[in-house]
Amino acid sequence: QVQLQESGPGLVKPSQTLSLTCTVSGDSITNEAYFWTWVRQPPGKGLEWIGYMSWSAKTYYSSSLKSRTSFSRDTSKNQVTLQLTSVTPEDTAVYYCARVPRSTWGEVFDRWGQGTQVTVSS
Predict the structure, then answer these.
(1) Which residues touch 52 (CB under 8 Å, ≥6 apart)?
(2) What is the DSSP-derived secondary structure letter of residue 26?
(3) Are 34 and 47 in contact (CB under 8 A)?
(4) Which residue in 4, 11, 14, 9 sits closest to 39, CA to CA?
(5) Torsion sign over Cα 66, 61, 47, 114
(6) pLDDT, tens digit only, all 122 positions of the chain
(7) Comparing C-alpha atoms, which of 19, 16, 3, 8 is closest to residue 72?
(8) What stretches of 31-78 show up as alpha helix (H) in DSSP?
């Protein structure tokens, strides 16, 4: 059974860097059949895609967040990490990681983490 679990601080101060980790069990982040993605949902708004990381660690970022976003991974721990720099209160959201079958060209997210609330506030 594939499970994804997000972890990280629930509160971040403005201008700091947000770092969240997605730990995957039941599959490998190097599985060539999948990408791994981060999305977020600000309060009262819809889902916003942040970016993808492929099985080979190639990354693709949303144009609106690209200048502040980076993904990394630790294959020994089967983890994908999101870093978002220079955060503002507008980055307050529930952050999710998800698995994306390569065959769906990014259209389907077939496994999700439960999400983690991040609040940006001083």
Answers:
(1) 35, 36, 37, 59, 60, 100, 106
(2) S
(3) no
(4) 4
(5) negative
(6) 999 999 999 999 999 999 999 999 999 999 999 999 999 999 999 999 999 999 999 999 999 999 999 999 999 999 999 999 999 999 999 999 999 999 988 789 999 999 999 999 99
(7) 19
(8) none
